[in-house]
Predict the 3D structure of the following.
Amino acid sequence: MVSVEIAQWVEQAGPAVSAAVSAYGAAVLTRTTDAAADSTVGVGQRILQAVWRRRDDAGRAELEQVVDEAVEEDSEAYTTAVLGRILKRALQDDAELREELAGLPPSPAVGGVTVTAAGERSIAAQHIGTAITGDGHTPPRP
């Protein structure tokens, strides 16, 4: 990975790393992988633990401090930014880590679909036939 690729990878990995920190706090660095964790949290946990394993004592202390601060800050944007800086530095300094993490999907698989709806009586779907919301409607006849 060159620096542009590293920056893109770190940007894509940000949500997974933030989700792992939100789910586990500082324990994300040392706890065993949780089989019940969703895929995003699991990927974030594996990323952070890979960085953790490859650091010396001072590097581990720095990573612990950053994770602790991110937990206390309780802001996903802050967590993503500070952990992103550490990930970038770790990837730039360690070719073996780049190789190890290149095999982890930092984001959902290409072609994945996210559908979101918000608000009362909202609907969302990738494909939709007939959708009726509200009161007093009669379904259309075929």
Notes: The mean pLDDT is 79.
